[in-house]
## 1
Amino acid sequence: MLILECPCCGVVGEETEFAGGGEAHLKRFGPGSSEENFHDYLFAKENPKGVHFERWRHANGCGKWFHAARNTVTLEVYGTYSAQTYEPPQEIKDKVSAKVPGWSWREFA
Amino acid sequence: MSTRLASGGRLLNKGRALNFTFNGKRLNGFEGDTLASALLANDQMMVGRSFKYHRPRGVVASGAEEPNALFNMGEGETFEPNQRATTTELFDGLTCTSQNHWPSLEFDVGAINNKLFSRFLTAGFYYKMFIHPRPLWKHVYEPFIRQSAGLGKAPKDRDADKYEHFYAFTDVLVIGGGVAGLQAARAAGASGAKVMLIEQTAHWGGRAPVDGGTVDGAPVDKFVDEIVSELETMPNVTMRNRMMGAGVYDHGYVLGYERVNDHQPEVGGIRHRLWRIRATQIVTATGAIERPLSFAGNDLPGVMLAASIRDYAVNFGVSAGDRTVVVTNNDDAYRTAITLKNMGLDVPVILDARPDGGGDLALQARELGIRVENGKGIAKVKGGKRVEGVAICSQAGEGAVLEEIACDAVAMSGGWSPVVHLWSHCGGKLIWDEAQAHFRPDVDKAPTDATGEAFVIAAGSANGTLDLAGILTDADAAGKAAAKATGHTPKRKAAPKAEAEEANAMEATWLMPQGATIKLRMKSWLDFQNDVKVSDIQLAAREGFESVEHAKRYTTLGMATDQGKLSNINGLAILSDALNQPIPQTGTTTFRPPYTPISMASIAGEARGEIFQPIRRTPMQDWHEENGAFFEPVGAWRRAYTYQKPGESVENAVIREIDQTRDKLGLLDASTLGKIIVKGPDAGKFLDMLYTNMMSTLKPGRCRYGLMCTENGFLTDDGVVARIDEETFLCHTTTGGAETIHGHMEEWLQTEWWDWKVYTANVTEQYGQIAVVGPKARIALEKLTDDDISAEALAFMAFKDITLAGIPARAYRISFSGELSYEIAVAAGQARALWDALLEAGAEFGITPYGTEALHVMRAEKGFIMIGDETDGTVIPQDLNMQWAISKKKEDFLGKRAQERTFMADPNRWKLVGLDTLDGSVLPEGAYAVAEGNNANGQRNTQGRVTSTYYSPTLKRGIAMALVHNGPDRMGDVIDIPKVDGTVIKAKIVDPIFYDKDGEKQNV
Amino acid sequence: MKRYSAFAVAREALGNHMGWERAWASPEPKKKYDVIIIGAGGHGLATAYYLGKNHGITNVAILEKGWLGGGNTGRNTTIIRSNYLQDPSAAIYEKARSLYETLSQDLNYNVMFSPRGVMMLAQTQHEVRGYERTAHANALQGVKTEFITPARVKELVPIINLDGPRYPVLGALWQARGGTARHDAVAWGYARACSAMGMDVIQKCEVTGVRTVDGKVQGVTTNRGDIDCEKLGVVVAGHSGHVADMAGFRLPIESVTLQALVSEPIKPCMDVVVMANTVHGYMSQSDKGEMVIGGGTDGSNNYTQRGSFHHIEETVRALVETFPMVSRLKMLRQWGGIVDITGDRSPMLSKTPVENMFINCGWGTGGFKAIPGSGWGFAELVAKGYSPLTEEFGIDRFKEGRFIDESGAAGVAH
């Protein structure tokens, strides 16, 4: 039973308040994109054993989507941040680096 | 015999006698007894039968670890199987029966397993036998095995009791109210941290008052009283007993299981309460459990844990026997001998497996005149249904009998194992403590929380500290550390000091005697309930079941209702020995919640029956209920399927509703349809991405039917979009889809197109919506409004704000039935008033409310698709010939790229058509149209399937919609559709619009 | 290998069971094998078994990082059924079910296959239609199922409450020859049979790398050294993405927790398996008497084999509602497994971008029931490069938009 902090409304809530939305920082590929790119966009998920950047919705709260940096093995939450961004904030990346030296996730490190 | 003593019984109120019934016998006990102590007081040593061999079983322990004393308790609606007698407080009128025997506890036919077959029924015998002949497993062997297994009876009735859930939040949660827990709570509490202290029994102090000792110069029971009083006065400390820490979960979530009224069922109210506790720090002061010793006949009733015999004597004034032989590998069991001797009971001998024997306590025992034999053990316990004596041997030998001693009880102690369950539930690791021969928490590998920091601290004997002085110091430190970790400053007060006594080290004794012959090992029990013996584990190892998990699963060691509290360590020591490897290399099995079994009822909580899941109600729900609605669950709603008149069948009611609507006037509660406002300068652009249609070109005041696909291309929802003004759209969704679609919109707006200026709001419940349908719809509405709703003023696919029956309303001229139709939306609070007004105004036209089935039939007659019928998550709009709803002008919309993939663009996909059965019958739901031949896997080839099928009252015959291979190009073809019984219905492929193809009725 | 039988048990009993030999050998890895299977769970062991039995390939190693059968094979709710909607699913699950019928005899190991019947309750009109459709599909697929009335449901499951105020039971899809088996025994039986054929079942052997040359598999690197192979089959469920990563490709897989629980044992009270998808719960009674209970998956990526308790609450609530007597039982133990979920929740049995490397994964919440069929088909794919059973389960289907989606029949749970 995770605890997450919604960065939009500031509430620290039980997992039951939130709904997981899978991998974050997806780059959308629409009409005209290659078969490969479109497939990877929809299906080839990182699914890492370790640091994961993912979407959550504060579904039974303010309703906003946000991102979390979470470890899928230890379940440590390095931080939550706005979904309106193309990459994790430096502060979050630093925090992850401090805990998991040498980590990488797609192009992030 | 076991009996009640004249003295002792610190937990009893001897002033209040209680009556209870065991196997029909009326017996007496006292207030303060457990069921186990009361049974022992009545010389009921044998309490049940084991799982496999049906061997006689007696009480072994005095607490949660008890594997044997399990009973069917109560009757009827309060019946419950497998109730553990050692943790059941006696109450007046308690009834219970023993389990797993037939016809009676004393004479059990199943014991034939023991007498005749036990030689064969070793570990793994199931896997090696009953292989031939094949049908016998299901019909003979398995039923027999099932019947002889299973312990308690199955409850039959609905549960009469009440249960509830509580939430609690605390800085520090201390689990366990023994001296360690009390001291940890005090140390943490002194810092000002919010502390919660829970204890599974009804009493504080754990086993310290039984074991004795002095703290700061006073007897330990006085220390307990003082610390409890002190804690009770601390406003930041909450104490609850009869509440077990059942499980520790991620991020400091703890399940507390409070047995509120199990001990006083006559009070009524809540029986169990499940607590969902969030703690920043958890101190597990859960104590330790004494281990049995493995010697032949250690499972006979009367062989008990040494400390438990002491518990029964001191706490309940009950002696397990008149003559108790003590057998041990550590000093602690000497306390039992001393206690019994001091109470005037006979202890013929203490058998100490250690060649050098014990320390201070051994000296005390000898001073009391008790015979002590070092380096000795039990070769064999004599007796049938209970202990009659022991045969003594050298621990170092193979079991040659030196002497036989008559006794009626054996107190055994194989050392103590910390209760590490809660530490381990959430990933805490263990280390092997060679000196004490047990696993204890590895403080460097504690479970970690959301911040990656350790959040569990083990304290006292749960941490492997077994002496009182050490326990208090350790617990004090744990309490302070926990407080500090929650940001509080612990007081610098020193821990209370207990007087230490000189003890000799325990010595691991996994088998008694150490060289026991196979005959003895086959009688040396590890798991009393599941009948697993030393020889079984050794057999498993020989057969290659070398992983501790394999050995457990192969032998069922530790899989009984006690989950191996007594057997696991002994078993894995035997396994390690058989594999010739150190115990840590063997490791332990995984500790899983709950610590002891918790009631399913408490897990379910209040949510049962009507409130199992909340029902969403439309403003007209009361009316439906009062007017014969036959409901169907749709999402969280319950919608009227049809409204039955008295004596009318469901089918006839549906036909009547359709006929009346098509003929005159029908009324539908459409409030459950999803309604989502999409507003902002970019709303049109956003909806263009969301729908396959072009929505940005919709004129204010107009409606457009739209389709929504997932990014994966599949059709997921549909509905009418109305443009309220330049910046505002109202999107109708399906009943089940409102929340999902709203979430879907928000996800795209917040995670992809966050710079678009669009807001959404789900206003589904803000509006009541009523469809007024049928040729008389307009005249009926005109009776209630002065606004112009003529065909010219309110054309098909337009909407208009009007006043209806004095209520501000929005009338959408849309139709899902093919009739002249208005969907009227009003504020939810006024919907019922409008509904009533409409019924009154429509009365002269025979207005007929209709339900979802009539709605479905009428839409099918018109060839309108239904999400969930024509679609199933694999269908794309193109399959439904809905290219007209897919904008060619748009470069992009969700699903567009996906639909370009080869399989989706394949012209051979099954496409929507109508089907006319040649004989006019109704096709079965979900039937398939067959094609020639079979596929590579021998399955019959198919060429289509029925998506919707109904009897059409309008056409007086069966109609169906179907997806058929090349369907639209095969009009007039006849295809074969087999029923499940194999008989074939022939159907002709036709246009899916069966009724009013040109839309003349809805366009009037 | 000595055969198991009642006679053998009697014979060994006379010798106090000292004469039993190892169920499977414990060999050191050789330098090279024709085929290496990574993962000694049910699917991996079954693959090896049918490689030997059907295709004569016995120079096979099955590498297991922990103990054999220790993943999802040993932590599922043991339901066996084949009442699937789509043809490819029905084919492989029915193949599996039919192999289960005789598996004890084939393996000379009692896997306790108990065809006691599996029932999937219809509690909404939508589910009724979905299951009626499945019954029609099954009739053409050679899978024996029927849609039964509430009265028949009650007859088969007397402890059920048909008239729950929230979701009354409207009928059920019934597969009389579905049932359960003893999960550990399936792994053990296959392992014993593989070992008897001379294959090497190597436990505590963790693969840390996949070696390729020119896009072709060469072998694996393990904590016990490099091992070469002609062909490599990866059958590691929740860890598939991890192994694919070693070979340099990604899989459309996400790993989440699926939880289950058992009650304390009680005398027999339910003879069939019941699944209730509307309320999300399923239950059967084990031969030991425990009620074995499962529900839906947790909602986020997770490799811990632990889940959130609220899912347990939801499941138990659903079952208390469906079977009121469950209320007075106690939960004995709860646990979790890591399940590998694909984009359409159907498995992948497929070639991979690496030549001679094959993958069998994505069984999600429903793999146990498929073990023999999955092994049969995957062995054929590995041996011959083609199997009709696995043909539709290729990795490329996601690129093509060709999904095997079972949600249409509401059959989302397993």
## 2
Amino acid sequence: MTAPAVPDTHPPVKRSWYKENEIAVTPWLFLLPGILFFALYVIIPIFQSFWISFHQWDGLGEKTWVGLGNYERLLGGDRKFEVSFWNNLKWLVLYLLAIPMGLFISLFLNQTVRGIRLYKSLFFFPFVISQVVVGLVFSWFYLPGDQGLLNNVVGVFGLGPYNILGSPDSATYGIIAAGLWPQTAYCMILYLTGLNAVDPEQVEAARLDGAKGHKMLWYVIIPQLKPATFIAFVVTIIGALRSFDFIAVMTNGGPFGSTRVLSFYMFEESLSEFGFRMGYGAAIAVVLFFIMLGFITYFLWSMYQDEKGAR
Amino acid sequence: MHSMMKASVAALALGVASTSAFADGHALSGDLRIVSDMSNPAPRAVMEGLVADFGEMHPDLNIELTIVDREAWKTQIRNALTADAPDVVNWYAANRMGPYVEAGLFEDVSDMYEDGSLPGLDAVKGAMTLDGKQWGVPYTFYQWGIYYREDIFNELGLEEPTTMEEEIANCQVILDSGRKCYAIGTKFLWTAGGWFDYMNMRTNGFDFHMELARGEVEWTDPRVVETFENWAQLIDMGAFIDDHQSYSWQEALKFMTDGDATAYLIGNFAVAPMRDAGLDDSQIDFYQFPTIADVPQGEDAPTDTFHIPAQASNKDNARAFLSFVASADVQTEINSGDALGQLPINADSGVDADEFLEQGFDMLSNNAQGGVAQFFDRDFPAEMASVGMEGLQEFMVFPENRDDILARLEEARQRIYQ
């Protein structure tokens, strides 16, 4: 670097620190309120949960340090935990049925006939009503004996009566079926918007090449729906982990705890009427956190891969 | 809201001052904040009436009453007691007080029991005692027992049974007539706790039941197994309605009002809905749970209570309110058939002329020599109660799982009572 030939007789005006760093600082200033509240209400409580999970605590008195005791009990053969964990898996796997079902309905509805808007909104209707209402309606539908609609219908064919929610073997599936109703509607709406974006020229070209029926669907339509499928997958996984409302309304975790999932078990241990075992509840929360973290990492990774591929 | 309350109290004070002015001698002043869980229509009216009457006696006292949902209160009380505590709260007797007594959140009111400000409460003192001290004042309790369809019993020519053999013989007749013997709804578990309480108290006696509640007996003990064997006799003969795990107690009531089931082991609170459903007193009646072994009979009679939070700011006013609520006249009034419709806790109170209240009062006064228990979920520690009731529900559906259930409960016992 060469020194200026003419000495600088006008040294630069001393600018304020903020002015000097404006470009770097301003975004953080705008982010600050968000970061602050996110930290206060999300990040810090996560670490607090970790901390509490190493204690025995009734939420009122002194905490007693038990180290990994809660985890040893939880992962070392707690039957309630095992039942809840397997139920979570059932939810995750079976809830994904909402995606093909949603796709099927959206293909069915993706046509121009008189009144199609009405049909579309009727199919979307279950997603609009509250989960609690859906759960309640289904629990009436499943009522045992000859009271529920289900038993009246299967009774016509000489089957039943079934007590879907009263039997530990079928109760979880009954609740998942109730959950699939609104979730299918959600996937349907995602695919309907996706179908609008399908390139008609590609369809035309495929048709010229002789593709039709399920080959057309599999090789031409579905690849173009990939973004919609990804979002449907994400919201369905999240929906499966948020099954709490349905369980609370339909069976309250019963019969004899056979429909619990981890989030419900956590609530029962820490916050319910007979609960207030905060340490143990926090330990369940931590385990659930890591399970969800696995999914979130996968989503973030696959989104990152997609973006890399697009570049 | 606050100022409205003040205004109405002031208006009340004006109206009353001229008539019954300061009959009490030492009128209270200052504030009194009450949080009550008496949110159902009838109890709510009672609570509001209590506050109005107390305000009339103490015109200078500024009373603020907040009524919260009864179910929600079960979890809200923890926050209420720790942050900005009110002066009086509702809760339940016996072990349910435990967590708050241990955490030092309830005021020790033993002094009230000693200095004579609570006459007539000797009989219920035990239910309020933990660690040798009293922690609150009860305001109502009710009996449990078998409520049955008198008209169906008459039709089948059955008498009220007093022993389990008679009970089973009756039940067989009922089953043969195409009905079920007992309605029950175990969806929310606790109703099964009532059956276990009685089965165990009748098989092994009240004292054994309490030892079990305190965790001093193993769940796999042969005496406990015997209780379950006695219970299984009824389950195996199909005495209980089908699919009871899917109903709440209110939903199961329909079986009794429809005449599909003839009896219901439940608390006295079920009488009002039975009457509302169209049954009159010639159709329903009550009998004490029949005896099994030769042991003094113990009864379930859950007690609801008032307490003073340890962090309350107007404890003197709160104490005055507690002794007002527990006084004989007030007890007679608030427990009458058209108010709470339950039993007064004061020995000097009158029991309303109601078929069920009279029978219940007589049973608890003269025929409960074993002792009076609160209820499964109040006598057992919370965690044991929740694990236990789940096991009891499973037993009622799958009695063949008994040994597995008991092993599980025993495992829980060893962990919980350390």
